[in-house]
Amino acid sequence: MSYDNSELLHAYLDGYAALGTPLFREVAQGVVTWVLAVLSDQAKGAFYTSQDADVQFGDDGDYWTWTVDELREALPDKAFHVARRTFDVEEAGEMHHNPRKNVLWWKHDPAGDDQWPTLREALGRLKAARDKRTAPYVDTTPYVNWNAMMASAFLHAGAVLDHTECNALALKVLNRIWADAWDGTRGMSHVIERAEPHGLLEDNVHAAAAFLDAYEATGDDAWLTRAIAVMHYCGRAHWDEDKGGFFDVARDRSGAAYLATPAKPVQDSPTPSANGVAALVLARLWAVTDVKDWRRLLDRQLATFGGAASQLSLYGSTLVRAVDWAVNPVTRIEVSGARGQGAACDMHLLALQTYRPRKLVVRKTAERPRATVCVGTTCSLPVTTPEALRDLLR
């Protein structure tokens, strides 16, 4: 699923940025490679919905799984033994329909440094062998909420992995969402280039969150303006002024495409909840603009749902992240300087790559490069080189 992989991509990128674990970078790069190859339309600017596990009834994931014999047939002897140990391939596998089939998972690192090249060779050969199998169906429907989530993850990957092609595709997708899904009076459509349904909260708030990510990644104020426009629409169409919180469907929407009873989703299942994401967007808008109305809405949002957080446990994580933004200081990294290659560009990339909870990156244009780091109301002196900024962020 697109939404599984976008959130996993964020998690592995954060893990690599925070800990420097090479495997986390490897996994993140693998997700990016798969999405570019299978789950995207780079010409039009869209991310697809999903790739099935099965090709036909009863195979239960045969495209993705391996028997010992299939592994041996695909690999030379040394690569076979390294891959078998690393990925825990045994005669007794995990699949009920065929107990000899193994789901590859990372059980052991290669036994020595000299085995890593062998493992990389094995992965390439296994991919080539798998490509000869009939691939499962790909659902190409471009849902707005899931496209926004993957675009956000690709902007994150563009920074942490320093892959400009990730940024280019993410921005292309977000520009298409704005051009082909947004209507200022009816909000986001649910599917790009389809008129109905319109006015679903999750499409709007996920798009607003991704627009804020694009603002941080580019320093282009147009993205901030778009995020604000979407949240103003949500305030008009979804906000419950009496009891607080956002309804899942706009008040003017009705018909077969919409549930008759409005709800205020706050549980993360299967994606980050619409009201949790809305709270995060409000917190970020308040942090970047210092406009008190955003803080007022954030406080009401958290007061409305705060009592549910302890009951939701893991499935309230998005809401709890918004609480974290509300009660703890934000790290604001502001970089100024000329556009294009140079010290300011390098400092901007470093700011985006650095892991900090509750981080906000602001990019401005100026004649000379400089960067400041503020945590709450305490700010550093300006620095002018990437090396000095790196020292500040350690």
Structure report:
This protein has 15 helices and ten strands. The chain is of the alpha+beta class. The strands form four sheets. It has a four-stranded mixed beta sheet with strand order 8-7-9-10, sandwiched between helices. It has a two-stranded antiparallel ribbon with strand order 1-2. The model has no long low-confidence stretch (mean pLDDT 95). The protein folds into three domains: 84 residues, no CATH class; 147 residues, Glycosyltransferase (Alpha/alpha barrel); 63 residues, no CATH class. Helix 4 crosses helix 5 and helix 14 packs parallel to helix 15.
* CATH structural architecture of the largest domain: Alpha/alpha barrel
Structural class determined from secondary elements: alpha+beta
CATH hierarchy class name of the largest domain: Mainly Alpha
Portion of residues in beta strands equals 5-15%
Mean pLDDT: 95
The CA-CA distance between the termini, in Å, is 36 Å
Summarize this, please?
The protein is α+β, with helices and mostly antiparallel strands. It is 51% helix and 9% strand.
